[in-house]
Design a protein that fits this description.
The chain is α+β, with helices and mostly antiparallel strands. The protein folds into 2 domains: about 1-260, Metalloenzyme, LuxS/M16 peptidase-like (Cytochrome Bc1 Complex, Chain A, domain 1), CATH 3.30.830.10; about 280-460, Metalloenzyme, LuxS/M16 peptidase-like (Cytochrome Bc1 Complex, Chain A, domain 1, 2-Layer Sandwich). Helices cover about 40% and strands about 20% of the residues. The protein has 15 helices and 13 strands. A hairpin with a 5-residue loop joins strand 3 and strand 4. Helix 4 (about 145-160) packs parallel to helix 8, helix 9 packs across helix 12 and helix 10 (about 325-330) runs antiparallel to helix 11 (about 365-380). It is globular. The chain starts with a strand and ends with a strand.
Length: about 450
């Protein structure tokens, strides 16, 4: 067991929700009564700058547990993170999302309505979410003993023996197909999907979490069951717990949850993303007034030490809002867009360093020229001293304000466990940002090759 005290914080970068338009989750409407009245306070809870104690252990079944006591309110947040995202779809794109959503259908003898009623009867909230890297199952419950016992019992029943009824799966497939049709009508979603396809090609990150119109209607119950059996195991999960729960009670609950799952093993590591050596640009016609632009390259793993250097570089380029280069050059000086941003999105394999913006159809060429010039300048010259100081100060100054809620804390615990980050990741964040030097930024930026950018433009005519 290891323990430390550090700052809780919001998810840094895009560790779980890893791409524009890539994540849809299911937050039940269950328990919208007293739990939400209390939950309004919980969403602002632990107090800015308050220390969070993180403890870690593994259950007998091999389930890794990260736990942070938070006794301020009578609430418990539970998050199970499985290495079961779209990167595990193989050729059956959408299978991870369908399996994740289908968990709410209930075990044998208890349909989705019965599940909803049991959660609602004790004011609990249950949700599922899936992205490229991971699939998440979450529960928020009050810690009044009888109510918590009922909520956690339902959760364990759902994990132990999901029935995956054919009628419910058919409804889920229809809903996923309808969502895909809506995506086709949104230029930003079209651009995001094609951006990832072009950037990652045959790598598993080329799979869109929402699935594909050719595969989603053909996904079968047997495939869902096999996917669940393979990936929803104790050895392939991280359990994060935070709230008004003692260590002894947390251990007992973790053992019960782990016992509901097969032991299993961690899914094999994803292959590295091949380094790109040439640029590709694709324009897609779309009847919209604005053109949506995505531009970037695969860049950063979640556990890469260059995370801090690229975080500073990204803040200076386009992650710092009004003070960033892109905002000044694209919006203030040229009026090409109302908003423009950059982000670094580390994942289990190399996630993207990307730029996103919208601009008028007749301004696309000028906008692309400016974006490419700024990427080339950043690669060539790095970040100057004034930008370094401002970026570091903004990142560090904003960090305590992101302490936010138990929900943020449990997500951070899940992120730390899933990506095998050190338990001092949050506690040491500001010191590591402050220690970044211009030379480190310049070195890290060499992986962002401006001659190998993937660019997708959706809007206007070909």
């Amino acid at each position: 067991m290891r323990a430390l005290k550090g700052f809780g914080a919001q998810m840094l970068g895009a560790q779980v929700f890893d791409a524009p338009g890539a994540v849809t989750g299911r937050m039940s409407a269950w328990g919208r009564g007293w739990v939400l009245a209390v939950g309004l306070a919980a969403f602002g809870l632990s107090g800015v700058g308050q220390a969070v104690e993180i403890e870690e252990w593994s259950t007998e079944q091999g389930l890794r547990v990260l736990y942070a006591p938070a006794p301020t309110l009578p609430m418990l947040d539970i998050q199970l993170s499985f290495d079961a995202g779209a990167a595990r779809d193989g050729e059956r794109n959408g299978l991870a999302r369908l399996t994740n959503r289908a968990l709410a259908h209930g075990p044998a003898g208890m349909d989705a309505s019965a599940v909803a009623e049991r959660f609602e009867s004790v004011g609990a909230q249950f949700s599922t979410t899936s992205a490229r890297d991971m699939a998440i199952v979450s529960l928020r419950t009050l810690t009044e003993p009888d109510w918590m016992a009922e909520a956690t019992e339902v959760l364990i029943d759902l994990l132990a023996a999901p029935a995956f009824p054919e009628d419910d799966l058919a409804r889920e497939r229809r809903q996923m197909a309808q969502a895909l049709q809506r995506e086709r009508q949104e230029p930003g979603s079209v651009a995001s999907r094609r951006f990832y396809q072009l950037m990652y090609g045959d790598h598993p990150y080329g799979n869109a979490p929402s699935g594909d119109e050719t595969t989603v209607p053909t996904l079968t119950r047997d495939e869902v069951q096999a996917f669940f059996d393979q990936y929803y195991t104790a050895g392939n999960a991280v359990l994060a717990l935070t709230g008004d729960l003692s260590r002894e009670a947390a251990e007992a609950l973790a053992e019960r949850i782990a016992a509901a799952l097969p032991e299993g093993e961690r899914a094999p590591a994803l292959a590295p993303v091949p380094r790109r050596d040439e640029a590709v640009t694709e324009r897609i016609a779309f009847p919209s007034e604005q053109a949506h632009i995505f531009m970037g390259v695969p860049a950063l793993r979640r556990d890469d030490p260059d995370y801090y250097s690229l975080t500073v570089a990204n803040h200076a380029l386009g992650g710092g809002g009004f003070t960033s280069r892109l905002f000044r050059e694209v919006r203030t000086q040229r009026g090409l867009a109302y908003s423009v941003y950059s982000s670094v999105q580390p994942m289990a394999a190399e996630g993207p360093f990307l730029i996103g913006m919208q601009t008028g159809i007749d301004q696309v060429d000028e906008a692309l020229e400016v974006l490419r010039d700024e990427m080339a300048r950043l690669h060539r010259a790095g970040v100057d001293g004034e930008e370094m100081e401002a970026s570091q100060a903004n990142i560090i100054g904003g960090f305590p304000l992101r302490l936010a809620s138990n929900n943020d804390i449990v997500r951070n615990l899940g992120m730390i466990g899933f990506y095998d980050l050190p338990l001092d990741f949050l506690a040491e964040h500001n010191e590591r940002i402050e220690a970044v030097t211009p030379e480190q930024v310049q070195k890290a930026l060499q992986r962002i090759d401006p001659e190998a950018l993937v660019t997708v433009v959706v809007g206007g005519r070909d």
